[in-house]
Amino acid sequence: MSNIIRGYQLSQVVCVMAQLGIADLLTDQPRSSIDLAQATNTDANSLNRLLHTLASFDVVIEDESGMFSLTSLGSTLRSDVFNSLHDMAIAWCHPAMYGAWTNILESIRTGYPTFNNIFGIDFYSYLHNNTEFNGIFNRAMGSMDRHAELITIYDFSDAKCVLDVGGGKGVLMMYILRRYWHLIGILYDLPHVTEDARKLFAVGQSDISERLSIISGDLFVSVPTSADTVILSHMLMNFDDSKTKLLLSNCRAAMASGDKLLIIEVVLRDNTNQLDGRLNDLNMLVLLGGRYRSEQEYVTLLEQTGFTLKSNIQMKCNDNLLTCHAV
């Protein structure tokens, strides 16, 4: 219980390691705390204490000569590896994310996000107004391995046009279009998000730019038409049931009968042995007033908005792929 209570201290230690880029500095060879302090412009004694703390839970290891090396666990914080957790570590410990949890009691009592009261604006407005954190957050979300896994478990061969609603910078769309060269893609998100995507996929700068349309808009007003496959990846968890039904209804209005809707979300199981999912469920509450849902809760929402659930596949990344058909 003591380790659970002090868990926030462990996450802050890992965050500092990521912020200082220590994992990258230890990629090629072991280094001393003095050498690392010089490279990171930090106090050698204080950094040495941080490294010993990291060693106590197997993020780094110290040899007899006082040289520190990365463990396999610590290597996940390198910024140059596939599915890096570097940005994730920084994002989760950012005051915007961590700060909302300092008053979770208010959300438990009221059922409303505490983020708005602490910061004076909603979470996505905060992202829009804070460029640095917006970049960290988007990179952290883009690093999730659900993007790479989707194209290994779902066959897009019969699709002609795929629409990613709330697709951020287009990481998922990039995976799909590079795997299926016959596809046309549409990336749809808020204007300040698509601005970054337009730079990333500018004509002549990307091998998929000629097959990708980037559209800005408000998904609670309308969703672009013409796609036979629509993707909602980590979108519905952000909203309460009323907004989720509105978003699903807008998607259905843009689709023809028989078109596919792919939902990628963590689906809560009936038992409570699902710590990551349960913590993220609470995170949605304190940040956005959203929630994670069970399969039956999704079935109910889908039936109310003109869809039927055809399959629910458990992904290796702990998400679920819900394949739905427009009726």
UniProtKB/TrEMBL annotation:
Q: Which Pfam families match?
A: Dimerisation (PF08100), Methyltransf_2 (PF00891)
Protein name, entry field:
O-methyltransferase
GO MF annotations in UniProt: O-methyltransferase activity; protein dimerization activity
Q: What are the GO BP annotations of this UniProt entry?
A: methylation
**InterPro entries per the record?**
COMT-like (IPR016461), COMT_C (IPR001077), COMT_dimerisation (IPR012967), SAM-dependent_MTases_sf (IPR029063), WH-like_DNA-bd_sf (IPR036388), WH_DNA-bd_sf (IPR036390)
Pinpoint the O-methyltransferase dimerisation domain residues: 4-77
The reply to whether Methyltransferase figures as a keyword in the UniProt entry is yes
Q: Which Gene3D superfamilies match?
A: 1.10.287.1350, Vaccinia Virus protein VP39 (3.40.50.150), Winged helix-like DNA-binding domain superfamily/Winged helix DNA-binding domain (1.10.10.10)
Q: Which organism is it from?
A: Rotaria socialis
Heme as a keyword of this entry, yes or no, is: no
Tell me which residues make up the O-methyltransferase C-terminal domain.
101-307
Q: Write the record's keywords in alphabetical order, separated by commas.
A: Methyltransferase, S-adenosyl-L-methionine, Transferase
Recorded superkingdom: Eukaryota
